[in-house]
């Protein structure tokens, strides 16, 4: 069932702020990324979401398109971000059918719980490859379109800070590597790598008008990651120790996305926006 608007976006944002923008999103059929894209589409953007499962990806794309009359949302399945050709083909389709890419959300991730001594080298590599290599491949494949978008939005071709928005990147990371988390060495190393990828991108590509930031979600209710990675009773106990005393929602992450891609985020570059109610600072939820 489609989400009611107040489940994925605050009333603070104005309709049309992302008119004529295009967002490309990996992991776009997942709970968090689909809410991020849905919010952008609601506010005017068109979108291309990619994923490994064709049926799920196409269905989620159709569902997101209901957020706004006339929205174009492509769902491109069978895309494995570990394979550059696979990502490049999806990017080409997005640029061909939607006219370019203004915003990138690199959200594809893999995860499971495993102790170090039971984790095979291939299991470790699988998550590093999906998260780090996959994010890099996605950045590399979308970069020409992002640079073109950023240039279009610079007022005089010289300013480092673009007027209007385009050429914006969000990498979706996590907080588990801040405090160290048992059973997730593979994911912790991967997320630290994503933070470094984003920071370097911000530094190298800022002069070309690109901004690159990380959103690090905390425990977000109703997500596949939370359902699979944590026992409900453990989480409910742990949540009592969190400063804001609740799970995050997909709306919290969608709002952060709108902020970073909108004019309000023009001068934010190379940052990690932690959206977790200060959970990681307590060490209560990990
Ligand atoms: C130990 C495991 C395992 C498990 C897989 N492997 N699952 N090892 N425990 N539970 C091992 C396999 O045995 C194999 O090693 C290697 O990993 C690759 O497995 P494959 O199934 O062949 O790989 P693949 O099909 O590429 O699957 C990738 C995956 C998968 C990561 C293993 O689980 C996946 O894609 N999951 C869905 C995506 C997902 O989890 N999304 C939510 C992300 S949430 P061997 O040695 O046998 O060959 C998120 C939030 C982070 O990121 C923050 C959390 C708080």
CATH architecture: 3-Layer(aba) Sandwich
CATH names the topology as: Rossmann fold
Rg from alpha-carbon coordinates: 18 Å
Could you give a short account of the major beta sheet?
Answer: 7 strands, parallel
Structural class computed from helices and strand pairing: alpha/beta
Which stretches of 5+ consecutive residues score pLDDT under 50?
none
Structurally, the number of domains stands at 1
**CATH hierarchy class name:** Alpha Beta
* Percent in strands: 5-15%
- Tally of individual helices: 11
Order of helices and strands: HEHEHEHEHEHHEHHHEH
What does this structure look like?
The chain has 286 residues and is an alpha/beta fold. It has one domain: Rossmann fold (3-Layer(aba) Sandwich), CATH 3.40.50.720. Helices cover 46% and strands 12% of the residues. It is built from 11 helices and 7 strands. The protein has helices at 5-8, 31-42, 54-65, 84-98, 121-153, 176-179, 185-205, 224-229, 232-239, 250-261, 279-282, and strands spanning 22-26, 46-50, 73-76, 103-106, 168-172, 211-217, 272-275. A 7-stranded parallel β-sheet has the order 3-2-1-4-5-6-7, sandwiched between helices. It is globular, with a radius of gyration of 18 Å. It starts with a helix and ends with a helix. The model has no long low-confidence stretch (mean pLDDT 92).
Short description:
This protein is α/β, with parallel strands linked by helices and 286 residues long.
Notable characteristics:
Rossmann fold; seven-stranded parallel β-sheet; 12% strand; alpha/beta; binds hexanoyl-coenzyme A; 7 strands; 11 helices; 286 residues
């Amino acid at each position: 069932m489609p989400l009611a608007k107040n489940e994925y976006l605050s009333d603070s944002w104005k309709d049309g702020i992302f008119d004529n923008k295009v967002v490309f999103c990996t992991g776009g059929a997942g709970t968090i990324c689909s809410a991020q894209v849905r919010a952008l589409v609601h506010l005017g953007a068109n979108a291309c979401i990619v994923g490994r499962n064709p049926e799920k990806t196409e269905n989620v794309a159709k569902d997101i398109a209901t957020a706004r009359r006339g929205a174009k949302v492509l769902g491109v399945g069978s895309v494995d971000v570990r394979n550059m050709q696979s990502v490049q083909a999806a990017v080409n389709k997005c640029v061909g059918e939607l006219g370019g890419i203004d915003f990138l959300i690199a959200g594809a991730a893999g995860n499971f719980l495993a102790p170090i001594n039971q984790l095979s080298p291939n299991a470790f590599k699988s998550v590093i490859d999906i998260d780090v290599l996959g994010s890099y491949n996605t950045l590399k494949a979308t970069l020409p379109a992002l640079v073109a978008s950023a240039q279009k939005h610079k007022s005089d071709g010289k300013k480092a800070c673009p007027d209007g928005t385009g050429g914006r990147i969000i990498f979706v990371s996590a907080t588990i590597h801040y405090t160290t988390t048992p059973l997730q060495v593979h994911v912790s190393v991967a997320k630290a790598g994503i933070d470094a990828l984003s920071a370097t991108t911000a530094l190298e590509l800022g002069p070309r008008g690109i901004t690159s930031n990380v959103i690090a979600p905390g425990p977000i209710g109703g997500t596949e990651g939370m359902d699979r990675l944590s026992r409900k009773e453990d989480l409910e106990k742990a949540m009592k120790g969190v400063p804001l005393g609740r799970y995050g929602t997909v709306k919290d992450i969608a709002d952060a996305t709108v902020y970073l891609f909108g004019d309000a985020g023009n001068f934010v570059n190379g940052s990690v926006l932690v959206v977790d109610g200060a959970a990681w600072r307590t060490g209560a939820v990990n």
